[in-house]
Design a protein that fits this description.
279 residues; 10 helices; 37% helix; elongated; Thioredoxin-like_sf; signal; Thiol:disulfide interchange protein; redox-active center; Thioredoxin-like_fold
Length: 279
């Protein structure tokens, strides 16, 4: 029987993810991929600032009238996998998980496969949702063939779209802060804003002169395409998109500090945000 388009998409995503990593990190990411239930990498206009999750309206799974559960909630955290949220309820122990449409409420144990531990409390789930295992991600970065700005010991991963105005602003800050010698910014252009973004991302990746490509990205100079290497391989770009999907990136710029803290959208003050890093 032919596979449904959605099944083919998921299977293709898993196949590409298998190429992306090796060893223990590979197994962790493959397991995480099984949990990702979104339809794929976002397309169309990407958000430039995070707007947060809308309120969840659910029916009480314990027999109360519809909407009563909202009054019982004492805490709520959006998960970075699908549209589930973790909640706590007044007078009830443990953590519950509510689907985004309010239809399902689950009770059970949640394991963070990237960190290799069980999450038992809402604060633990919140911390996991807001951070990633930077050490594991750093092992994969070379396969994405990113641009690197600066020579500092503290790495910062930065996802940008060439035509995102907030990305242009954050790249100006990145170029200035890289001169301080503390940080190295690992910049990964991805196409979230349509075909023109894809054209530019591919051209930057395939450019014969990498320095000229980085300059074009930093100065937003995309009118004249750069000379490309013949037979350029774009596997690294595909891996970047899979990586972005696993991270549930919904807004650009998207930054990850070396302590694992994520920033979705333009930081109010990039230097101050970097200074808050632990370790």
């Amino acid at each position: 029987m032919p596979k449904a388009p959605r099944e083919e998409l998921l299977m293709a995503g898993r196949s590409k993810a298998a190429v992306m990593v090796s060893g223990r990190v590979r197994h962790l990411l493959l397991a995480l991929t099984m949990l990702v239930v979104s339809g794929g990498v976002p397309s169309g206009q990407a958000q430039e600032l995070s707007s947060g999750q809308p309120p969840v309206v659910v029916s009480d799974p314990f027999g109360a009238s519809p909407g009563a559960l909202n009054g019982q909630m004492t805490g709520r955290v959006a998960l970075n996998a699908g549209d589930f949220q973790a909640i706590t309820l007044a007078g009830r122990s443990g953590v519950y998980f509510v689907s985004g449409n309010g239809r399902y409420v689950l009770r059970g144990t949640i394991h963070d496969l990237w960190q290799g531990r069980e999450l038992q409390t809402l604060p633990e789930i919140k911390a996991a949702a807001e951070t990633v295992n930077f050490g594991a991600l750093a092992q994969m970065v070379p396969e994405f063939e990113p641009f690197r700005i600066g020579t500092g010991q503290r790495q910062v991963i930065v996802f940008v779209d060439p035509f995102c105005p907030y990305c242009e602003r954050v790249l100006r800050d990145v170029a200035a802060l890289a001169q301080g010698g503390t940080h190295q910014f690992v910049v990964m252009p991805i196409a979230l804003l349509g075909p023109e973004s894809m054209r530019v991302v591919r051209n930057l990746h395939c450019a014969q002169d990498r320095d000229a490509a980085l300059k074009a990205l930093l100065t937003h100079s995309f009118q004249t395409p750069l000379a490309e290497n013949s037979g350029c391989e774009v596997a690294a770009l595909q891996k970047r998109l899979i990586f972005a999907r696993l991270l549930q990136i919904r807004a650009v710029p998207f930054l990850i500090r070396d302590d694992g803290v994520r920033q979705e959208g333009l930081p109010g003050n990039l230097a101050a945000w970097l200074a808050e890093a632990r370790g």
